[in-house]
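To the team - S-adenosylmethionine complex, inputs and output below.
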Amino acid sequence: MTRKEQIRSAYKLTGGHAGFYDGMMTCSTLPGKAICRLVWNMDREKNLRYVEQALSGVPEDFSGRLLEVPVGTGVLTMPVYRELPKADVTCLDYSAAMMAAARRRAEAAGITNITFCQGDVGALPFADESFDLVLSLNSFHAFPDKEAAWRETYRVLKPGGVFCGCFYIRGGCARTDWFIRHLYVRKGFFTPPFETENSLRERLQGMYRQVDVTGVEGIGCFRCRK
Ligand SMILES: C[S@@+](CC[C@H](N)C(=O)[O-])C[C@H]1O[C@@H](n2cnc3c(N)ncnc32)[C@H](O)[C@@H]1O
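Output:
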């Protein structure tokens, strides 16, 4: 299965009975599609495009140690891990409830090479330089202590390892910026300060090499090497 097919299968896996959160992340239910359109100015194709870009640092035959932080419900990544039987995957999240959903999804898909771990991205319970790849989807905008998250994701990555993912960036879509400022921040869903596409590129260039940053509306996708 190609990467695009794997990501598309996330939509199929959730289908009509997806919860609100999964529907929103996959742009696949009526409320999910409405939020994608209204807040993010995205349809399924744009949604698919940003997820594909965010995952582009994960080779299709990856076989090393991969850390996903935070995994959430695993809706976007379990279809990918299903096709990486030689990888040694660790999934971490702060929320036991979100991770329980990811665990159920992994079990349902018959994936056995994942370890789940509850923890804080700002104090990762792993040794220095212990992962070949660190993946972080849709989350840096939510972390209250972003500097600790940048530090910790860097610390646990091996030299030569890949760091990739995506999150909200300011300045990519005016409508998204409005919703984030007036709703998401006030409700505590997202925590400023937020990167722009340029500031994200500059930050990553200061820490990593082979930095690639692309924006899809208000989402910045990145891939770089330590
Ligand atoms: C928007 S979800 C994204 C989840 C997943 N990566 C995805 O794309 O579906 C944000 C996740 O971050 C987790 N989270 C928030 N703060 C965290 C922290 N300090 N350490 C670990 N996880 C955290 C939440 O529990 C939640 O599952």
